[in-house]
Amino acid sequence: MTPSPVVSRTPRASTIPVCPRGGLPGGRRERGAVLVHVAVAMTGLLAFSALTIDLGSLWVARGQAQNAVDAAALAGAISLAGNPGDPSQAEAAARAIAQAHSIWGEPVPAGSLTVATGPCPTGSPSIIGECMTVAVQRGGGVGTPLPVFFSRLISVTPTSLSAFASAKVMTGNTSTCVRPLAIMDAWRPGSGTWSFDDQFAPPDVYVAPSSSGPGTGHTQASLNFRVSLGRGEVQSPVPPAGNEYFNLDISRVGSPGTEGDYAQREQRYLDNMATCNAVPVPIGEPVGYWDEGHEQTNAAAQSIIDSDPGAYWDGTSIRGSAFQVSPRLLTIALVDPQFYLTQQGLPISERRYVIRNLVGFFLEQANASVAGLSDPMVGILLRTNGSFSPSADNVAEESAFLKNVALVR
What we know:
Blueprint (H helix, E strand, L loop, with lengths): L32 H50 L4 H13 L2 E2 L2 E2 L5 E6 L10 E10 L22 E11 L2 E2 L2 E7 L41 E6 L12 E6 L12 H13 L6 E2 L3 E4 L4 H14 L4 E2 L4 E2 L9 E7 L1 H6 L9 E15 L10 E6 L1 E3 L15 E6 L2
Parallel strand pairs: 7-14, 8-9, 17-18
Antiparallel strand pairs: 1-2, 3-4, 4-5, 5-18, 6-10, 7-9, 8-16, 9-11, 11-15, 12-13, 14-15, 15-16
Helix pairs in contact: 1-2
């Protein structure tokens, strides 16, 4: 077979242009183009950093400032509730708490604080009361302005902030720190004028306080009154006197009232004398009797005095305490004397007191020597701290001794 001739073809010229070395078609160069993209991206990154880091630090500092004024306003209001006659002491307590805080690493300076006692801001609860208002500022001519970091690149200068809080002292009707002591609420005697050494017996009349009025009970006119209290007698039907104290069997966390054997009830009573019971005790609640351990009662009262020996009542407020609120300011019950008489025919274990009000009692002396009184204690009737429960009985403002403290702004 004859071999086929070899056909040779002339190669086609390529239509793809050859790029100059290091360049693009047509001879265009893009050396350094990445730098342009980086520069554009950096602008966005810096703006994002300014937003996240600088704005984030501002929000942290703002939170620290708000924490400072919230704590200060509450501390001042608690002090004001315990010592309403001395707003300067409450304002000092608010300043001390605020200055214990820091804003972005700098302690709150005294000059940056505004502390005032008086009217409440618009929108606060309509319950009658007054407010402790605290404001703090950093920057703007007060203290060191807050630093900025990345924002400087867009001409943002160090900034300032402010925070504001107001806590209101309102009427309360329950407490989680009721000591197991009670005195009879005041009544209208059949003749003459009521006094603490009167005994309740017909034709005396008792009308419990309510939201519409004080009834015959103690009112704020009884505040700041020094009273000597002796142990009341419940073993026999003796008419109760206004200057006698009675022992209660009230509930405690982990130990419900009126339950348990003698040893358990005794321990509950002594624990409640020593520390807060931590269970809400509302106005209107019936509570059990405890008629034992009067020597222990006085020993417990003396221990309370010894826990804050420097505290004293100066006629206006409690002074010299080592605590924001002296542990010697006890919350005790005002009980219904008329209901008490109806219970005297029952065994003591089945009897109940009915709490008609709660009042503060600043304990001055235990085991005092007072003629005609057994195991006497001496103290001052005062306002004290409490809380508000919608399910508890309310009393009129003029007979309200419990003060409820809450942030309202």
